[in-house]
Amino acid sequence: MNDNELCAAIGRSLPPLFNCSPAPQEGVRVRTPILYPDGDVVDVFVLERGETYTVTDFGDALGWLGLQSVSRRRSPRQEALARDVCQTLRIELVQDQLVLRQVPREGLAESVLRVAQAAVRVSDLWFTLRSQSLQTTADEVDEWLREKQIPYDRAVQRQGRSTRTWTVDFETYADQRTALVFLLSTGTRGAVHRLAEHILACCVDLNHLKTTQQGLYFVSLFDDTEDVWRAEDFGLVSEYSEIARWSRPDEFEQLIRTA
Q: How far apart are the C-alpha atoms of 145 and 153, rounded to whole Å?
């Protein structure tokens, strides 16, 4: 079936407001009357795959969502919400693309509508991005720990060898392992070295706790969603603490769970 025949087959089951035409690279593009929150049009693409078809947004929805955020990374909650949308509509999420595969010809119109609906519902996560701008990284870590059901205390006070009292962002408890988690988060490049020096001083002053509390260790959690950190900032605190990056929550989880 050539592109014109495919468009005709799709168009017979869709309202006139859906406009089908050959796509720039392969398959056909269905321009829908559905809009993203900023007024951009939701496009859906149909690709012939033997005797069946693949229907996809080619990553437009999550790409649009990423452009609305100052951060290059979706939060764990946003990721979970996007997957919930796909699960509800029985759509695969493959490399940030909303995809329906092995669609029969008679199911093309319904599949186009379903992918378009998923795209607009994913774009609605923009409202969580707006509220996230008011949410500190510490709040995001707090939420993540709750979702992972990792026991913790927040803003814990610990006295150093110097008798100075330090505030530890999180103290987590997993099996026989307790972690004091120091969060390093700033969007200002000029402040990063001072912040790293502060965490180093804190770790050095509290290091005596490791001799009295078995299974205690320190983690410096860098919020690397902002490109402000240099190799020397990580190196400064690495002698006295484990290094974790908030862009890699799976590695952070393994670090605080595994002895």
A: 10
Output the CA torsion sign for 28, 96, 111, 36: negative
Among positive and negative, which fits the CA dihedral 176, 183, 255, 238? negative
- Is the Cβ–Cβ distance between 114 and 103 less than 8 Å? no
Number of helices (H) and strands (E) in the chain: give both, helices first: 10, 11
Per residue in 175-228, pLDDT (tens digit) is 778 999 999 987 667 678 888 999 999 999 999 999 988 889 999 999 887 778
Residue 129 has pLDDT above 60, yes or no: no
Range 248-256 contact pairs with CB under 8 angstroms and sequence separation of 24 or more: 249/76, 249/144, 252/219, 252/221, 253/148, 253/150, 255/179, 255/219, 256/150, 256/172, 256/174, 256/177, 256/179, 256/181, 256/219
3-state secondary structure of 123: helix
Query: Residue 132 and residue 60: Cα distance in Å, rounded?
Result: 22
Q: Are 141 and 170 in contact (CB under 8 A)?
A: yes
Return d(Cα 115, Cα 149) in angstroms, integer.
33
Q: Does pTM top 0.70 for this prediction?
A: no
The count of C-alpha atoms lying within 13 angstroms of the C-alpha of 186, restricted to the half-sphere facing its C-beta, is: 14
The tokens for 233 are: 């900032």
Tokens of 213: 């509390």
